[in-house]
């Protein structure tokens, strides 16, 4: 099969032409496999799609148009009302986000103790120090005052998780800059729970060039130069 191991970007599928050569064509959204309710996604056009296959197939068919350029995955789940993010909320957002990233790494570390290979050796040694000191704050919803106090007192605990998340996202390509599609996996899963994340990322882009550099990312999270 000429299409075996022939890679097409999202929204396209491999098709063999009359000469028997493989090339990529737009996925027909109507031909996408059926999905469950929980697999629905919301596009930036505020329309609910029956999964990412249908969304990216639609985007491909709109290629070259303004609508095609503007259509992206907004968040996981059916479209719903997302309340606007207030100035106060966006100011508090980094506190919760830093704590959440730290907790994600801690969970990875615990799983890695049983099933090694989740973290690299370097990551494991970094997170081990955080893990051993983590008995100060038990998991749960903490007040803004407590999170701020902990960040100021245990600043070094929060630096690595912020750097780690940036490099986890910076994959296509690895260039120390985050573009919309690299931010999408994190954004799309958090928007329904954290309605300030879109505004937070917009404001992280200090020079408004639609790219978030490592320096801008760290500045957003209150990490010193």
From TrEMBL:
Main localization (coarse): secreted
Keyword set includes Protein transport: no
Transmembrane segments: none
Domain Kazal-like as annotated: residue spans: 25-81
Compartments reported by the entry: Secreted, Extracellular space, Extracellular matrix
Family: Belongs to the SPARC family.
Protein name per UniProt: SPRL1 protein
